[in-house]
């Protein structure tokens, strides 16, 4: 399939670029409306059902649909292999991506890896080989989840330690949410707020999964306003009124309103995702088509 063009037919006026933030200015130079990401990627967990059996072919298909970026789900197969390298060496993966024309600014890595002796060093070496800018903790097993807001703050302090070491290697540490972070433990404050406030913005970023924030009953725009600049990564997936996960554009989430606050959020990279699509490639094709419609 031919690559879709992301550029609009008319050039943006350049006179006002100095008044825009850097991301908005970049979008304007490309002729893309200021409230839509200039590039969109795919979280490879979405295509795990077909990825292992056709690693190169699936990446080529993703590129053919118009995506320019992918986010790996985990880099090795001993933690599920979802979207991982499937026993390929990092240098081989980098060569495949370069050949196809994809970049991978981010990867998910289980917190167990960070906690292993020498685990973080191995991860950072891998990140530099492949080109990851972000290493993101994607999930906590039930036994690892804090049981109070203060516990979430303490987890933030743990992440600060990993993030400080990652920063020395030129890599950013991040945390990706689901819905369980929004437990209030009988009070008024979600655990997620404790996590955000317990992490140091200098060394830890947040990857906001828009579906799970909405599913938990909260508003992404509220978090952007309260914690500006903390959310350089988005997971973009849709939610129907009854809570079902949908490809982007087939649910009820107002992505135009969310993207309109991308500067406030600090957005750099957005990855579409669907946890359990009926047809993985059809799902990501539907999603990018909706993003293109938002671009106008």
Describe the structure.
- By secondary structure, the chain is α/β, with parallel strands linked by helices.
- It has 13 helices and 10 strands.
- It has helices spanning 22-29, 48-51, 55-64, 90-100, 111-115, 119-130, 149-168, 191-198, 210-215, 220-226, 255-259, 262-265, 280-295; strands at residues 41-43, 69-72, 103-108, 134-137, 172-176, 204-209, 233-236, 238-239, 245-246, 269-272.
- Strand 2, helix 4 (90-100) and strand 3 form a beta-alpha-beta unit.
- Helix 4 (90-100) packs parallel to helix 6 (119-130) and helix 7 packs parallel to helix 8 (191-198).
- The radius of gyration is 18 Å and the shape is globular.
- The chain starts with 21 loop residues before the first helix and ends with a helix.
Summarize the structure.
By secondary structure, this protein is an alpha/beta fold. Helices cover 39% and strands 14% of the residues.
Comma- or semicolon-separated keywords:
296 residues; disordered N terminus; 13 helices; two-stranded antiparallel ribbon; 8-stranded parallel beta barrel
Helices and strands, with pairings:
Blueprint: H1 22-29, E1 41-43, H2 48-51, H3 55-64, E2 69-72, H4 90-100, E3 103-108, H5 111-115, H6 119-130, E4 134-137, H7 149-168, E5 172-176, H8 191-198, E6 204-209, H9 210-215, H10 220-226, E7 233-236, E8 238-239, E9 245-246, H11 255-259, H12 262-265, E10 269-272, H13 280-295
Parallel strand pairs: 1-2, 1-10, 2-3, 3-4, 4-5, 5-6, 6-7, 7-10
Antiparallel strand pairs: 8-9
Helix pairs in contact: 4-6, 7-8
